[in-house]
Amino acid sequence: MNICVFLSAADLDDHYTVPAREFAELLGRGGHTLVWGGSESGLMKVVADGVQAAGGRLVGVSVEFLAAKARTNADEMVIARDLAERKALLLEKADAVVVMVGGTGTLDEATEILELKKHGKHTKPVVLLNTAGFYDGLRQQFQRMEDEGFLPVPLTDLVFFAKDGVGALAYLEEAAGHQ
Questions:
Q1: How far apart are CA 51 and CA 177, in angstroms?
Q2: Are 128 and 161 within 8 A, CB to CB?
Q3: Strand-strand pairing, 2-6 and 33-36
Q4: Rounded Cα gap, residues 30 and 32, in angstroms
Q5: What is the DSSP-derived secondary structure letter of residue 31?
Q6: What is the pTM of this model?
Q7: Residue (of 57, 71, 5) closest to 29 by Cα position
Q8: How far apart are the first and last CA of the chain?
């Protein structure tokens, strides 16, 4: 399965990098392909290293203004013109999406993917990997949106919140079996 992972390119401490590395190893050992932003820095590098070391493939989609930071030994690397094209290519190349910890760029990617799913532009499973409770506040906000009528489809049809990589991958593999 080609799994797009949206995540930070920042250098983070162990309570984020250890679970990210464990998830990456699960992906690689499972024979999955990581589709990601292509960066050779921060958490993006941690996950790419883990997937590759465990036997998985790497498909990167960088962007022109970040091309100098792109991983040089990925199995495939595409350089998009801008962030909008990058997001479209990442989704196009993926069978499923996992959102890991990140900043405004990751949040932008996550909300766009969910908005597209809400409008039926894709049916790919989406997981928010809630490492160390990072997305607890977002989950609460999404629940409020659903409760107050802002979501035309049930929240559970849009996104699955996983507390760890094992739960995230199990959900994706089950969802892939039902498609």
A1: 22
A2: yes
A3: parallel
A4: 6
A5: T
A6: 0.95
A7: 57
A8: 12
